[in-house]
Amino acid sequence: MIIQKFHTETQIKVSNTRLLQSIVNNMKQAIINKGPRLILYSAHDTTLLSLNSALQMVTIKCVMDYFYNGVDNFETCINQYPMFASNIIF
């Protein structure tokens, strides 16, 4: 699924631009005390996987290394599907 959905830069941008813009705008508003200090988003595993790809925490190279070459590179990239109750905190 990682390889099919988030392989090209265009796919990554199209699937994440609105979410990342929303996160950045909310952070800017919080910094100048014009918005809420805490915002919680709820998402599915595919959204987390897509966001991790946009943040370059998941790359095709690390997934291929893990599954095809047996390189356990968990310290430098996420090489498994997001598990139940996974989260990203900014």
Structural features, described:
There is one protein chain. The protein is built from 4 helices and no strands. The protein has 90 residues and is mainly alpha-helical. The radius of gyration is 15 Å and the shape is elongated. The two termini are 25 Å apart.
Which sequence of SSEs, written as H and E, runs from N to C? HHHH
Q: How many β strands by DSSP?
A: 0
Return residue spans where pLDDT drops below 50 for at least 5 consecutive residues. none
Range of helix content? 40-55%
User: Based on CA inertia axes, which overall geometry fits?
Assistant: elongated
* Rg from Cα: 15 Å
Oligomer: single chain
- Sheet with the most strands, sense and barrel status: none
Provide a concise account of the structure shown:
With 90 residues, this protein is mainly alpha-helical.
Quick tags:
single chain, 90 residues, mainly alpha
Note the topology.
Elements lengths: L1 H4 L3 H23 L13 H10 L5 H10 L21
